[in-house]
Design a protein that fits this description.
Largest sheet of chain B: 6 strands, mixed
Order of helices and strands of chain B: EEEHEEHEHHHEHEHEEHH
Distance between the termini of chain B: 34 Å
Largest sheet of chain A: none
Strand content of chain B: 25-35%
Order of helices and strands of chain A: HHHHHHHHHHHHHHH
Helix content of chain B: 25-40%
Oligomer: heterodimer
Number of helices of chain B: 9
Number of domains of chain A: 1
Number of strands of chain B: 10
Strand order of the largest sheet of chain B: 6-7-8-3-9-10
CATH class of the largest domain in chain B: Alpha Beta
Distance between the termini of chain A: 33 Å
Structural class of chain A: mainly alpha
Amino acid sequence: MIAIDWSGTLTGLRAAWRREISAYFATPLAYVFVAIFLLVLGIFTWDLSRFFDTGAADLAPFFYWHPWLFMMFMPALAMRLWAEEANQGTTELLLSLPVNLPGLIIGKLLAAWTVAALALVLTFPWWIAVNILGPADNAAIALTYAMSLLMAGGYLAIGAAVSALTRSAVLAFVIGVLVAFVLTAAGWPLVSGAVADLLGPSAGDAIAQFSFLTHFETAQRGVLELRGLAFYFGFIALCIALNTLFVSHRRGGAQ
Amino acid sequence: MLDLQNLRKAFDDHVAVADLSFQLNKGEVLGFLGQNGAGKSTTMRMVSGVLEPDAGDALINGHSIVSDRRRAQSQIGYLPEGAPLYRDMTPVTFLRFMADAHGLPRSERKNAVERVIADARIASVAGKPISALSKGYRRRVGLAAALIHDPPVLLLDEPTDGLDPVQKRAVRALVARMAPEKSIVISTHTLDEVPAMCSRVIVIDQGQVVADQTPKALADSRPGGLEEAFIALADSREGGA
């Protein structure tokens, strides 16, 4: 039986979360991230989706952009998590601490997730606006917000794992966006349709099941699917495992 | 307190540390000497749990760094080479982070931070960003961080590198003050530091122990003193290679 050392994991998690939150807010990073995210999401929702022209009391035009924006913004938020440690030489400091590595990895991820959650919370005026327009299905909106936050965690987990592969935060960002793009576009009808045309309908469906977009669209219809929850949680757990593997590889002597 | 047992580490074809063994008792201050690339930092990284040994083990207060890493690491204070720090933090916030990461109870954290700030003499810069500190102050912040949990074993990789003479003297005094209660390994290639701080010297070359003596005995082994003895040991290995 494998015994989990909860004490070492929680100590590392708490210390890493506090450290990263301090790093995000001690510099303009978190403020700039939140401001640009809100601005871009606002422009896309207002202008491209013509939110107020539809006159409908739902947030579909607002949530539509979440996967596409997260694909760019979340790797930007996560790109420095491990790349900067390698660049500054502080990985050595972290690896010498009497804590479990998964605790450090989850703590860092949760810190980035906290900033993402703050950005999502600050979109509340859209929720208020839709209630002013007419009777809104607030339960469905709340569910979609929760799934959006979960999806943000998935994109952040990609960014964090990728940042453990390199010393360059910029390179981590580029690779993170590429991976995120693949996992988003796989559920885009244009892509899954092309795969279905080439390899058959079941292949198109299978590809789409690996997309963040597919599972988020289900939530947008107000349906809470166990499969969707399992997908996001499973994906985040996989990325944490890969992240742990990449960082612990440095214990073997990789630079 | 510290027991290295046949530690070995290779990077591809290059053997950095080859079956290195020695013991260190409480009260001993070991000068760990060697040329650049001799394997000093690799050894320190293995003992601190940063690198996994390919073979062998290091027992810290009886805890294996291989099979009981977390407990072993809790017994060590480690100042890595170059003293890497989070530059966006201040010394106080950094030391709080280190206290957190070592699992110090909340009630002890404030006292621990105040104690090491006083020990490392960094009170005047405690609230400034680490990025604005001189190299000497940064190294002292790193030293303070290594002491935050009052460990019985200290591993200090080039602790006086970049310090001015006054700061060097302060570090020597700190080491002398801590020595009776701890086992201290000081990796250095600044030979002047050795007689002033160390009670014992181990010289390694190509990852193996080539001398294990008191500083005086090593210095007396050659007419030119410690430096000549050190060079002779290095030359003999170069010649034999």
